[in-house]
Amino acid sequence: MRTRAAEPVSVVADLTALRESPPHLADVPVTVISAGRTSVGMNARVRELATASHAHRAARYPRGRHVIGPQADHMMPVTGPDVIAAEILRLIDGASGAEESG
């Protein structure tokens, strides 16, 4: 329980650092994946804010993309692995196409 209670402190510090000093990823494809469903600890309002934040983050990069896993909740690797896998394959296909044309 102490670990769970300490997590938000770390998350806030990490998010603040990311906001103040975002990585420079000019020509790197960046995908931010959001869950589409609420879950324990992630009610509708928190989910809405997180999704908006994810969309904003993706939009900050020239090759940014925001993807929503409509059937997934906060545990995306468990509830939406297909969304993650599809996006990884899309990125690989895009990189392969870039190599062939470059």
Give the helices and strands, then pairings.
Blueprint: H1 2-20, E1 30-35, H2 44-59, E2 64-69, H3 76-79, H4 81-101
Parallel strand pairs: 1-2
In a nutshell, what does this entry contain?
The protein is mainly α and 102 residues long.
Please tell me how large the radius of gyration is. Answer: 16 Å
Which structural category do the helix and sheet elements fall into?
Answer: mainly alpha
What's the total count of β strands?
Answer: 2
Q: Which spans have pLDDT < 50 for at least 5 consecutive residues?
A: none
Give the overall shape, derived from the CA principal axes.
globular
Distinct helical segment count: 4
Distance between the termini: 52 Å
Q: What is the makeup of the main sheet?
A: 2 strands, parallel
> What percent of the residues sit in helical stretches (DSSP H or I)?
55-70%
- Strand percentage, roughly? 5-15%
User: What are the secondary-structure elements, in order, as H or E?
Assistant: HEHEHH
Q: Residue-averaged pLDDT, rounded?
A: 87
Oligomer class = single chain
Tell me the strand order in the biggest sheet. Answer: 1-2
